């Protein structure tokens, strides 16, 4: 991202406070509604909240208001897609991203989100070209780490652990995003680099600030981007979670 170092008490709390103030001044502001929804769903995906269900419910309401007032606002359709994805409703998210692209064919955010849906709903091999297109369209995007993260995760799920080190690019761009650190922990562990894996897992826990990364069970019970269809969940189990176990994450 060119992402700021942040914790759940830092970057996201600041942004939420800013957009809450904007909404207090103008409760009908579509821009403020959409941006607040984006920040709320963003911290769910990054693993920096311990109130994921409440964040998603609030984000869903806000983006619904924004789209009711401005149905042609492309980025609100992107955020709707992100909310649906975080609720594990990937098939429903795909039309939202496609609507955003119909309104703005150069929306790197819509391409990135669509790629993530392909990662979680399949076909998984379609995710990488979409993410690569997002990178080409916006190579200096402050959120460039997300396409890198999806590309690295696809390689990880397909057991190409050398290529999964695309996740290192995501870490450079987003050094304080816990889910990226956990992906690297898994990739390193599967490569036999147990010390590096343990260090990345420790960083995931530190930046999360809660107990999301304390056990496999906690991770599987939480909303976010590591579920997918039964076929994709089986890939996560065989690779991502297998790596986290090797990195030292307990089952319960």
Structural commentary:
The structure is a single chain. This protein has 252 residues and is an all-alpha fold. It has a single domain (11-247), classed as Tetratricopeptide repeat domain (Serine Threonine Protein Phosphatase 5, Tetratricopeptide repeat), CATH 1.25.40.10. Helices cover 69% and strands 0% of the residues. The chain has helices at 11-25, 30-46, 52-69, 74-86, 90-103, 108-121, 127-137, 145-157, 166-173, 178-190, 194-208, 216-221, 230-238, 240-247. The radius of gyration is 17 Å and the shape is globular. Residues 1-8 have low confidence and may be disordered.
| Poorly predicted tracts of residues | 1-8
The total tally of domains equals: 1
Q: Number of DSSP strands?
A: 0
Biggest β-sheet description: none
CATH superfamily membership: Tetratricopeptide repeat domain
Report the radius of gyration as a whole number of Å: 17 Å
Measured by DSSP, the beta-strand proportion falls in under 5%
Mean pLDDT: 92
Separate helix tally:
14
Residues in helix, %: 55-70%
Level-1 CATH class name: Mainly Alpha
Q: How would the global form be characterised? A: globular
Q: What are the main properties of this structure?
A:
about 250 residues, mainly alpha, Serine Threonine Protein Phosphatase 5, Tetratricopeptide repeat, 14 helices, about 0% strand, disordered N terminus
SSE topology:
Layout lengths: L10 H15 L4 H17 L5 H18 L4 H13 L3 H14 L4 H14 L5 H11 L7 H13 L8 H8 L4 H13 L3 H15 L7 H6 L8 H9 L1 H8 L5
Question: Could you give a short description of this structure?
Answer:
The protein has 252 residues and is mainly α. 69% of the residues lie in helices and 0% in strands.
